[in-house]
Amino acid sequence: MISQLKAFLFRGDVLALAVAVIIAGAFQKIIDSLVADVIMPIIGMLVGSPDFSTIKIGEILIGNFLNAIINFAIVGTVLFLLIKSAGKKSEEIK
Q: Residue 60 above 60 pLDDT?
């Protein structure tokens, strides 16, 4: 049973997945910094404040939800552009 576990853990797919998860975690820090330190201050200059957490509709705080939506849109856009760019590069290599 130990040899089967070892064979499973060290299969190429499992190792590739582990590497992908680690790289994704590191990449997430880069994207978080891009959003928080670069893009949100630009949005703040345009609309007055990069933090929407204090926005309310009556007693309902929707500001954090707005922050999450904006962050999601920015991260999605950045990932789309990076993947599209990487796709062009890989097509050039072929």
A: yes
Nearest alpha carbon to residue 64 among 56, 47, 32, 40: 56
Q: Which two tokens stand for residue 72?
A: 């999601």
**57 alpha-carbon distance from chain centroid:** 29
At 57, is the secondary structure helix, strand, or coil? strand
Q: What is the DSSP string of 60-71?
A: EE-HHHHHHHHH
Greatest alpha-carbon pair distance for the chain in Å reads 62
DSSP-assigned beta bridge partners for residue 60: 57
Q: What pLDDT was estimated at residue 88?
A: 67
71 phi, psi to nearest 5 deg: -60, -45
Q: Please report the pLDDT score of residue 93 as a whole number.
A: 56
Whether the model clears a pTM of 0.85, i.e. scores above it, the answer is no
CATH class, domain 2-93, is mainly alpha
